[in-house]
Amino acid sequence: MSIAVLPDFLPSDLAVALARAERHETSWASARMVWHAWGHVAAPTLVLLHGGSGSWTHWLRCIAPLRDAGWRVLVPDLPGFGDSDLPEGCTDVDDLPPHLHSGLQQLQAAGLCAGPVCVAGFSFGGMAGALWLAAHPQDAKQLVLVGAPGMGLTVPDRIPLKGWRHLATPEAQEAVHRHNLMALMLHAPEALDGLALHLHAANVQRDRMPRRRLSSTDIVARTLPQLSARVSAIFGEHDALYRGRLSELAAAMPHMARHWGHWQVVQRAGHWVQYEADGPFTAALLKALSANG
């Protein structure tokens, strides 16, 4: 174990709240996976899985409140993102379950967390969580899907994301990052603050899995009936992935899961709901988790 180095652009309150984060490494098939951890090792464990083109920092604003609510909080950089290696041949979310399963087993064997755990997965991380627990049902007793794609529902208009890697200046890249954050991740313009921009710019530069395609399929909808874990869902009211179709999703999901928990919508928030509305989101997540004691 080592003490994690936090981003140097964090506001002082977050830097203090997240100080002395633990950094752990696990490996499977010669690929290293980096985990950040907070809270007492004997506390019930909550694994938070970040979204595509992200890292553990997608959960930045929720970690300390969850720890203070009594959870052991584990937040990995998924393979191919953040500080974790891109495994050979790993091209999409369906390649991640063995890395998550092996990583959790290694942490448990080292006495770094108790199990079975609860899992919350944001966007791409929700897909990863569903596939992980279908393959390894003994690993977790509950899954909370946050803004998860892969449900087979598409919006009429394609989300207008723009490329940025070809742009020559930081100013031009920043303009595209701002556009993309408002097109997909956030709802209210005031939510696009300096911290959101810093986090996004740092994360997308370390995305080594660029040609992911399964998010546009129904892979999660097909996987949910296989899960023995209790399944809940939290979505932002204005999630761009389900614009105009959130009510359809709300009606469909309880019939997909064998063990259904809660459906919750966080008002006035977009896709990156745990950043844009961290207080209401954390309350919703704790409510979902409380169903399992």
Describe the structure.
The chain is of the alpha/beta class and 293 residues long. It has a single domain (2-290), classed as Alpha/Beta hydrolase fold, catalytic domain (Rossmann fold). It has helices spanning 12-17, 63-68, 97-109, 124-135, 170-185, 194-204, 219-223, 246-256, 273-276, 278-290, and strands at residues 2-3, 22-28, 31-38, 45-49, 72-76, 117-122, 140-146, 230-236, 260-266. Helix 3 (97-109) packs across helix 4 (124-135).
SSE layout:
Layout: E1 2-3, H1 12-17, E2 22-28, E3 31-38, E4 45-49, H2 63-68, E5 72-76, H3 97-109, E6 117-122, H4 124-135, E7 140-146, H5 170-185, H6 194-204, H7 219-223, E8 230-236, H8 246-256, E9 260-266, H9 273-276, H10 278-290
Parallel strand pairs: 4-5, 4-6, 6-7, 7-8, 8-9
Antiparallel strand pairs: 1-2, 2-3, 3-5
Helix pairs in contact: 3-4, 5-6
CATH class category: Alpha Beta
How big is the Rg? 18 Å
What is the annotated CATH architecture? 3-Layer(aba) Sandwich
According to DSSP, the number of beta strands is 9
Report the portion of residues in β strands. Answer: 15-25%
Q: Write the CATH fold name.
A: Rossmann fold
CATH superfamily grouping: Alpha/Beta hydrolase fold, catalytic domain
Quick recap of the structure?
The protein is an alpha/beta fold and about 290 residues long. It contains ten helices and nine strands.
